[in-house]
Amino acid sequence: MKIEGFKTAKGQKLTKERLIEEIRDFILKDNRYQYKVLVGTDSENYEKGVEFISVIVIHRIGQGARYFWKRFYSNKKEDLYSRLWKEALFSLDISKELLKFLVKERLNFQFEVHLDLGTNGKSKSVIKELVNLIKGHGFDVKIKPESYAASKIADHLL
Question: Is the pTM of this model over 0.85?
Answer without folding.
Answer: yes
